[in-house]
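Blinded run. Sample ID left blank on purpose so nobody reads anything into the name before looking at the predicted structure. Input follows.
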Amino acid sequence: MCGSCGEEKKMPFLKRQHHCRRCGRAVCGECSPNSSILPFYGFENPVRVCRPCYQEIPEDELCSSTQSHNILVDPVCVDLDFTKKLLAVGSSDNVIRIYDIAACL
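Blinded prediction complete.
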């Protein structure tokens, strides 16, 4: 039975179930058409998310995997400014990335 819509006919016995990576419920394909990164849960690549969870994810946290991987470049130096709530990361590709970390503090 689908943990979202409750319909049993959408998930036959031999058909593979899908699991929402945010809430863990087994859901049918129709109830989990979305994917998102979930860095808080350790998922830096887009993973399957059910409709209710996808709607609960704040707009600013819905970003592509490319954006989420920017910080994964080999950091050469890191500076954290608590007063401005900014994180600056200088990386081996000669790019300085500035992140607003206000939501994390």
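Unblinding after everyone has recorded impressions. Residues 64-69 have pLDDT under 50 and may be disordered.
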